[in-house]
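so im writing up the methods section and need the YfhD family protein record in one place, dumping it here so i stop losing it
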Amino acid sequence: MTRGQSKKNKAKDDAKLSQTPEKDIVRDGRDVEYKEEFADENDLEAKERAEEADHRAKKKKKS
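--- predicted struct ---
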């Protein structure tokens, strides 16, 4: 092999994707993928109740 063709240097040329540091990730405790177009009446009611509960929890947390 010639200079610059060694296997050790090959990894240095690969572009790496940036990752979000763990400390910057905000988790809201939800683990659900939701599509509005596929929602039925029960889904919409559950979504509304969850939003109201979140609002009450945030309001109570501020107090």
